[in-house]
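Lab notebook, bench 4. Still working through the backlog of constructs that have no structural model yet. Next entry is a single chain of 180 residues. Request: give me the structure tokens for it.
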Amino acid sequence: MSLLDRAILALFALLVALLSLAFLAVIAGWTVPLDLFELSLVRSDYRLLAGAGAAVLLLLALRFLLAGMRPTAAREEQAIIKAADLGAATISLAALENLVVRAARQVKGVREVKPHLKILPEGLAVKLNITVSPDRNIPELTTALQRQVYDYIVSTAGLEVPEVQVRVTGIYQEGPRRVE
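Model written out:
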């Protein structure tokens, strides 16, 4: 929704709130709003002004009703790989997540990977939640993982990667082995 639409919606909500307050005041016994309404119906110039105001409120209500019922297409976030004279080449966030998972799985000791990517003006920020094997040196593994993901994204997608954050969320536990 654009800034203008938000401002008009806020104005519309304020007007509806004021009309609701006036209606509640009439129900409570305050007659001034009724007197003003009767005055607007008696004189033709006031009637024209009241009619124009009601028409504007009706049009705004219909516009926001239709805008609210219209399905919005989900916007897929994309990163620009290359901008050229003929146009831009982009890659979707889902495709980048697949590349990150593929790179992470190449590091020995990484069992599960859950990537969280964010496209920044300076490049792609990568945050990984991982589960590791219990027999690995975690500082060495995370360093190797950061390097692998960085190199893989730079070489395959051509994007800058200003940060690769790794969070070890679990140690993989194998079930008991059966010996027969």
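Notes after review: The radius of gyration is 30 Å. The helical segments are 3-28, 32-42, 44-69, 93-105, 138-157. Flag for follow-up if needed.
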